[in-house]
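[Discussion] Sanity-checking designs against the backbone

I'm trying to build intuition for which residues belong where. Below is a C-alpha cell string of 301 positions. I'd appreciate it if someone posts a full sequence so I can compare it with mine line by line.
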C-alpha cells in the first residue's frame, strides 16, 4: 500500500514537474534529477550533471520505483515485481524473469562522415564526427549490408574520457550501421571512464577496451561475441554479460577490476552470465570460479 501511495503521489509530481532532464524516483519517495541513465541487469547507472566527465553513480534496480524520461515516457525497472494496482505506463518495459533490461534508447544522432573514404590493401576507412563533436574512425565491413566497425587510428589515438558510440553513421548520403568494436579500438586509453555502446553491436573484438578506466558498461542485447583480452586490465566492478553472447575469447576479463583472485581473474560481482560460462571453464575467460559459484547460488542453480 505504501508503495502504491508513493507511486500515485510521485506520478502526479512528475506530471507537473517541468522536465529539463530525466527524473528518477526511489522506493522511499526521493526524487532525483539525473542524466545519462543506463539500466543494467541488477543496477542503474546515472550522473547528476549533464557532463560525461562527471562521476557515474550506481543504484540497485530494486531501490528504484520509476524513471520518467524528459520526452515523457516512463520506465518501471521492476515492472514484474510491482502489484497490479501500481500505475504503469504503456512505454514501461515488460520483462520476463531473467531477461536483461536494455538501456533506455538514447536520442543519439547519427555520426556524420568528416573525411573521404580511403582504401589500403582492400580495407576502406574514414572518419566521422559523433553528436558530441568527437572524431571517430570506422572501417567499412560490407558495402552491401552497410555495416561498420569502430577502429583505432594509430596516428590519432582516442584520449577522451567518455564516448557515445553511435548506432548509425551517415556516409555519402547513405546510412551505415555500427556492428563491431574493432581490435584494439580503444585500448590503452587510461582516461576512458564511460562509454555507451551502440544498440546494433554484435561483436567486441580482442583488446578493444584493454587498459581503460571503465568501471561499468551496459552490453546491448544484440551482442554475440566478446574477444580475447577485450577488457584486460580495465576496472569493471560488475559483469552483466547478456545471454545473447554465444562465445568469448580467452582472458576476456583477466586483470579486470579491483577484486582479483590469486590467479588475477575477475573476482567481483556478476549479475548475468551466458549459459556456456561455468565454474569449470570460467577461468579460460579470466573470470574466477568463485564468482561464478556465487552467481549460480544467487540464481538458485
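Best answer:
Here's mine. Compare freely.
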Amino acid at each position: 500500500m505504501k508503495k502504491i501511495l508513493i507511486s500515485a503521489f510521485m506520478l502526479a509530481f512528475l506530471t507537473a514537474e517541468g522536465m529539463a532532464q530525466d527524473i528518477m524516483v526511489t522506493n522511499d519517495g526521493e526524487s532525483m534529477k539525473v542524466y545519462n541513465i543506463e539500466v543494467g541487469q541488477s543496477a542503474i547507472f546515472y550522473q547528476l550533471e549533464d557532463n560525461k566527465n562527471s562521476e557515474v553513480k550506481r543504484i540497485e534496480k530494486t531501490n528504484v520505483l520509476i524513471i520518467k524520461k524528459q520526452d515523457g515516457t516512463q520506465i518501471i525497472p521492476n515492472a514484474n515485481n510491482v502489484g497490479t494496482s501500481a500505475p504503469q505506463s504503456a512505454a514501461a518495459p515488460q520483462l520476463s524473469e531473467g531477461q536483461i533490461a536494455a538501456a533506455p534508447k538514447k536520442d543519439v544522432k547519427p555520426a556524420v562522415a568528416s573525411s573521404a573514404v580511403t582504401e589500403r590493401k582492400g580495407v576502406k576507412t574514414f572518419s566521422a564526427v559523433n553528436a558530441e563533436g568527437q572524431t571517430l574512425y570506422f572501417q567499412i565491413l560490407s558495402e552491401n549490408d552497410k555495416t561498420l566497425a569502430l577502429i583505432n587510428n594509430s596516428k590519432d589515438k582516442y584520449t577522451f574520457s567518455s564516448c557515445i558510440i553511435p548506432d548509425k553513421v551517415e556516409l555519402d548520403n547513405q546510412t551505415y550501421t555500427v556492428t563491431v568494436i574493432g581490435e584494439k579500438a580503444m585500448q590503452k586509453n587510461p582516461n576512458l571512464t564511460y562509454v555507451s555502446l551502440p544498440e546494433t553491436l554484435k561483436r567486441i573484438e580482442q583488446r578493444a577496451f584493454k587498459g581503460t578506466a571503465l568501471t561499468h558498461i551496459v552490453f546491448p542485447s544484440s551482442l554475440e561475441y566478446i574477444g580475447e583480452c577485450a577488457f584486460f586490465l580495465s576496472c569493471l566492478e560488475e559483469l552483466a554479460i547478456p545471454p545473447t553472447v554465444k562465445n568469448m575469447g580467452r582472458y576476456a576479463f583477466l586483470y579486470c577490476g579491483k577484486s582479483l583472485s590469486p590467479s588475477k581473474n575477475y573476482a567481483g560481482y556478476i549479475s548475468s552470465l551466458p549459459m556456456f560460462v561455468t565454474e569449470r571453464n570460467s577461468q579460460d575467460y579470466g573470470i574466477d570460479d568463485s564468482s561464478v559459484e556465487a552467481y549460480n547460488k544467487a540464481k538458485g542453480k
